[in-house]
Amino acid sequence: MDDFTSSFWGYFIAAVSLGGIFYCAYILATQMKVKLKKGEKADVTGHVWDGDLEEYNNPLPGWWVGMFVLTIIFALVYLALYPGLVAFGNLKNWSAVGQYKTEVAKVEQKTNVLYAKYSALPIPEVAQTPEAIAMGKNLFQTYCVQCHGSDARGAKGFPNLTDGDWLYGGTPEKIKETLNLGRHGQMPPFGAVFGEEKVRDVANYVMKLSGNTAVNNVRAERGANTFAQVCVACHGTDGKGNKDLGAPNLTDNVWLYGGSENTIVETITNGRNNVMPAWKEFLGDGKVHLLAAYVFSLRPTTEQAK
Question: What is the per-residue pLDDT for 2?
Fold first, then answer.
């Protein structure tokens, strides 16, 4: 009954299933009335095709009737054993969800031994173990590629995991924290507060911070004042961000949504709201540990201590 929002549908399915079977039995019974004695010929029904092809009212073949009866019996037994009669349950207490959970539990019982082996090791050590990295990669290809891509280089709005640039920090502990708890990155919209001109001024100042040469210096100079009054609260006076807040470094020319003037203007005007789901409950500690080790292994060697 878990699959239905109302008990009505369970009774409806039971009625349709049993009604169909009993109707087939009724049709069979009504068509078995014709009996012929040995040597007796069947009457014609009066239906004629192509001038001389007549339809005879012969009895149903015994083998065919037998198979039809067996089919009806099989259908009734199947409905009783399995959940065809949704409203009444089934004798085997079987469900597709239950079978799935049983199969998953069997697989996890085998794999948890492997996960436990690596869960006791520090992530940097696991990241240097080929077998563990292969397992972590399989997990990544199953759960993470939808956002971060098969090469882990991300896309617009989804961070590149191979460049050593981290909003919340790239230490093993921070990566694991991110996987376990998820992240909710928010930047408030300032379009209504700043107005269009101030937004463009701040955008140009941010471009200047990142070393973009296509900057309007007049706008950038005006934008510096607004930045110092408002934006430093998250991004800092030097624009290098704050990992505790998930505020990005604006000086390194690494952009989650893009670093063009129009895109920065869009970000300042409308804000950003990005969510990474928490995986702890779904994957469990062992899988998260392997995933964290795999992600840690993707970073440039010179960046792995940061």
Answer: 53
pLDDT score for 169: 92
Give CA–CA dist 135/53, Å, rounded: 71
Residue 217, C-beta contacts closer than 8 angstroms, at least 6 positions apart = 204, 208
Summarize pLDDT for 95-148 with one digit per residue, the tens.
888 889 999 888 888 878 888 889 999 999 999 999 999 999 999 999 999 999
Neighbours of 71 (CB within 10 A): 13
Q: What is the pLDDT of residue 3?
A: 54
H-helix or E-strand containing 70?
Answer: helix 62-81
The two beta strands, 53-56 and 44-49, are: antiparallel
How far apart are the C-alpha atoms of 140 and 168, rounded to whole Å? 20
Within the chain, which residues score under 50 in pLDDT? 1, 304-306
- Domains contained in the chain, CATH given: 7-94 (no CATH), 105-182+277-303 (1.10.760.10), 185-276 (1.10.760.10)
Helix (H, G, I), strand (E, B) or coil at 49: strand
| Structure tokens that stand for 133 in this block | 């990295």
Q: Which residue has the tokens 């709201």?
A: 273
Cα 295 from Cα 285, distance rounded (Å): 15
Q: What is the CA radius of gyration of the chain?
A: 35
How many angstroms separate the CA atoms of 236 and 240, rounded? 6
pTM higher than 0.90: no
Cβ neighbours of residue 45 under 8 Å, at least 6 residues apart? Answer: 54, 55, 56, 57
Tokens of 10: 């369970």
Asked if 166 and 252 count as a contact pair (C-beta separation under 8 A), the reply is: no
